[in-house]
Structures are given as structure tokens and as C-alpha cells.
Automatic annotation (TrEMBL):
Gene: LOC120251389
Protein name: DNA-directed RNA polymerase
Cited InterPro entries: RNA_pol_Rpb1_5, RNAP_III_Rpc1_C, RPC1
Record lineage: Eukaryota, Viridiplantae, Streptophyta, Embryophyta, Tracheophyta
Organism this protein belongs to: Dioscorea cayennensis subsp. rotundata (White Guinea yam)
Pfam families per record: RNA_pol_Rpb1_5 (PF04998)
Keyword vocabulary terms for this entry: Magnesium, Metal-binding, Zinc
């Protein structure tokens, strides 16, 4: 409510937020409204290709039957030219089949247009407060902690009040980040291949043994389980493990210290200058190797194959949407994430705005609640109007608005007032909170009007000495 309280509709049918020095307009989707107000402009322009097509149709009008003509994309005027006197007969037959007259249809359309205009939002309406109430009131009926099975029994996603709180506060670390990866192929084999490329695989899961060998030369011998790797469609070999070991920043091993013995075996011979620390170094290295990521995305915990209406897709538990979209076999255009901040960092501010709307709708829908999409569009526009995703918290509101009294009425009252008085800041007293605190009419509802009266100029007064009468 504190973030949306200043939003109202102006006379130009735009939504603006009162800030210092004027109003800050939000980018609302008004294309549908403009098309409804200007229905005649919805028709496309007449192209040269349409004129050529009409000329061909006119030349062939005698060879076409009425059923063939009805299948063509032509206007009523073109049909009148093609059918001639038969047009009115066909029109009467169509009216009898429909069961309504043109007068009844006209009255029906006029009634629809009249009711449409009655539903229009009037200028000055506090749509921000209405939207905040429409989103907040159903939230009181939601459970505090809910986990929903996202298509399969092994995947849980946070819902209910905690999920709504994560979205509105624009949390950078959410409890259950889920990436829905749509695949290019519908086969189960390709789904398993993509899963093996996405899901994080550590060396301890594919290694048959990791042993310390002290004979001849102290080393660590790693033996891979090739059969398990083939069954899981991982394709992990000794060369891949060698590359992962050399690229790990904490191991700090050189290429000559990691040797590939065969397709499934490799040896690590660490070069330790002090022989007394060799045994300790080998045991430390052995404890780190099972946690080494050899394939997949390190930030992905796991991936589950889900079948929806005969089409396979992956539910990826973790982050790094950009890496998932770049995996071969993943349809990047349809891949989405429930992490709003990550969507903004990967796809931009417009995608994060759409993600906020979808996540609120999905969370409310799982509890059987339906909210008008315009309220969520207003909230998402407010959170993204500055070019970044701002949460409805004291940190986000301080970036949205600059009013001292408004910020002091929210949280940390004494701190805001002290800092403002110390720096000598001025407040324009334009928002709702400021006007209520100062006891002046706010610029919402009837307060949006400013009645002025034209005053005639006063006669000019001339100060002259009185005339001397003799």
C-alpha cells in the first residue's frame, strides 16, 4: 500500500506517480484501450498486393461460386462488386439463418458500448490503493507455508505468503529457484542427454575408487565407473576429469601433475617441495576430489524430467538461467525461471516485469484465487519503472520516491528526519502521506481538480495632488 498509494489516473488516461517536481508516468499497456477507442483505425492499409489480388478476383468472378467466394478474404464492398444483384439476396438468407435483424444487432452493440464506457476508470481514481487492496486482501486467505509438487513428486516449490513476500520484496536469494527448460526434441533419449549436460555431476558420483598409492612415487589414483557414466548418458572420460581438475582454482595443479593412464584411470602426482607435508597434502587433496564438479552447471542441484501432454521438459532446481539456455537441445525462447532478479540480469527489465505478473498469478491460482491482471500489471510497472527491479521495502521505496515525510512515515522515522534536517532538504508536499501529515487536500479523487476563477483587472489608481479650486 505504501508503494502504490500515490498512483492515480490523469485526464489523458495515463497512470502517474506523484514525485518531487511533477509526476512520473508509468508505462502501462494501453494498446487495447486505444484500439477500442479508435476502432476504424484497426484496419490495415491497402497494399499494392491486395489491389493486384482484387483485380484477379474480379476477372474470375464469373467462374467462382458463392461458396468459393465466401472462403476468400474480401470485404463487403468487394463482394458487392463480384456478386452484383445477388449480394442482397445472400445477405437476407444469412440474416434469416442468424435469427436476428440488423436493428437488433445495432441495439445490442450500442448497449455493449454504453456499458463499456460505464466501466471506464475516471480521472483521479486512486488505482494504486485499489490495486494494493485487491492483491493484499486475498493474501490474508493464504496459508503461511505451503509446498506444492511442481508436476512430479520429488520437486517442491515455495508458495503461499512466503512466495508472495519473495516476489514483492524482490529477494535476491529465494528458497526454491526453479528453471523450466523446454526441449527442442520430444524424445526421452534427448531429454536424458540434456539432463546429463545440465545437472551437476561431481567426481564422487562417477568414480569407482579414489586411492592414495605410496609405492614408488606417492600419488592419488582415480578409477572411473564407465558403465554408470554410459547408463546416465553423461559421457565422462578420463580426459574430461583431467580438464576439470586442472581448471579448479583451489587445487592449483599443473598439467604435468595430472596424467591420464587409460580411458577410465588417471593419476595425480602432486609436486610438494617439503616431503614432511606430502602425506598431509595427499589426504587433503583426496578429501577435495569427491566434491569436484566434472560436468554440468555448478549452481544446479538437480534436474527432473517431466512429461506434460506428451512433451518432455526439464525442471531444473538451481540458478544460472543463461547457462541453461545455452545448453544444446534446450529451446531458449520458451525457457523461463521463477527467480525475478535472475530473469532481469539475463533477459532484461521487460522480461522481469512479465515474470512478476506470471509468478503472482501462478501463486494466487494455486490457492484458487483470481485477481485482475491490471492490478498485477500496475504493481510490476511500479517495481520496474526505474530500469531495475525494486522491492516494496524501505530500500526500494527510497529509490522510487524522494519525499522526506513519506519515507519517515514508513520506517526509521527519526533517522530520515534527522538526515533531512541536517542536509537542509525540501519537501514539495505532493504525495498522499505528505498531504495527510500536513493536513492539506491530496491530489487524488476530487482533489485532482483545481478550480480557478478569472478575476478582472483592477482599475489603475493614479496618485495625484488635489486640484486647487479658486
Amino acid at each position: 500500500m505504501k508503494g502504490l498509494e500515490d498512483l492515480s489516473v490523469h485526464y489523458d488516461q495515463t497512470c502517474a506517480m506523484l514525485v518531487e517536481g511533477g509526476s512520473f508516468s508509468l508505462s502501462m499497456e494501453t494498446a487495447a484501450w486505444i484500439q477500442a477507442q479508435n476502432g476504424n483505425r484497426a484496419e490495415g492499409c491497402l497494399l499494392s498486393s491486395a489491389i493486384s489480388r482484387l483485380r484477379v478476383l474480379l476477372e474470375m468472378r464469373d467462374a467462382l461460386s458463392p461458396s468459393e467466394i465466401s472462403m476468400l478474404w474480401i470485404t463487403d464492398s468487394q463482394m458487392k462488386i463480384m456478386l452484383g444483384p445477388k449480394f442482397h439476396k445472400i445477405e437476407n438468407v444469412a440474416a434469416n439463418i442468424a435469427g436476428i435483424t440488423s436493428k437488433q444487432l445495432k441495439v445490442f452493440l450500442e448497449t455493449c458500448i454504453y456499458r463499456y464506457h460505464l466501466k471506464k476508470v475516471e480521472a483521479g481514481a486512486a488505482i494504486g490503493a485499489i490495486g494494493a487492496q485487491s492483491i493484499g486482501e486475498p493474501g490474508t486467505q493464504m496459508t503461511l507455508k505451503t509446498f506444492h509438487f511442481a508436476g512430479v513428486a520429488s520437486m517442491n516449490v515455495t508458495l503461499g505468503v512466503p512466495r508472495i513476500k519473495e516476489i514483492i520484496n524482490a529477494s535476491k536469494n529465494i528458497s526454491t529457484p526453479i528453471i523450466t527448460a523446454i526441449l527442442n526434441s520430444d524424445t526421452l533419449f534427448s531429454a536424458r542427454m540434456v539432463k546429463g549436460c545440465i545437472e551437476r555431476t561431481v567426481l564422487g558420483e562417477v568414480a569407482e575408487s579414489i586411492k592414495i598409492v605410496l609405492k614408488r612415487q606417492a600419488s592419488i589414483v582415480i578409477k572411473l565407473d564407465v558403465k554408470k557414466s554410459e547408463d546416465l548418458r553423461l559421457g565422462i572420460s578420463a580426459e574430461i576429469v583431467q580438464s576439470a581438475i586442472l581448471n579448479h582454482p583451489k587445487l592449483k595443479l599443473k598439467p604435468d601433475e595430472v596424467r591420464v593412464l587409460s580411458l577410465r584411470k588417471l593419476r595425480i602426482i602432486p609436486n610438494v617441495g617439503n616431503r614432511s607435508k606430502l602425506r598431509f597434502g595427499l589426504h587433503t587433496l583426496k578429501s577435495m576430489l569427491p566434491k569436484l564438479v566434472v560436468k554440468g552447471i555448478p549452481t544446479v542441484e538437480r534436474a527432473v524430467i517431466n512429461n506434460d501432454k506428451g512433451r518432455h521438459h526439464l525442471l531444473v532446481e538451481g540458478t544460472n538461467l543463461l547457462a541453461v539456455m545455452g545448453i544444446p537441445g534446450v529451446c531458449s525462447k520458451e525457457t523461463k525461471s521463477n527467480h525475478v532478479i535472475e530473469v532481469h540480469q539475463t533477459l532484461g527489465i521487460e522480461a522481469s516485469r512479465r515474470s512478476i505478473i506470471n509468478e503472482i498469478q501462478y501463486t494466487m491460482g494455486t490457492h484458487g484465487m483470481s485477481i485482475d491482471s491490471r492490478h498485477m500489471m500496475l504493481l510490476s510497472d511500479l517495481m520496474t519503472c526505474r530500469g531495475e527491479v525494486l522491492g516494496i521495502t524501505r530500500f526500494g521505496i527510497s529509490k522510487m520516491k524522494d519525499s522526506v515525510l513519506m519515507l519517515a512515515s514508513f520506517e526509521k522515522t527519526a533517522e530520515h528526519l534527522f538526515n533531512a534536517s541536517f542536509s537542509g532538504r525540501e519537501d514539495q508536499i505532493e504525495g498522499v502521506s505528505e498531504c495527510i501529515i500536513m493536513g492539506i487536500p491530496m491530489q487524488l479523487g476530487t482533489g485532482i481538480l483545481k478550480v480557478r476563477q478569472r478575476v478582472d483587472p483592477l482599475p489603475e489608481l493614479k496618485y495625484e495632488p488635489d486640484p486647487i479650486l479658486s
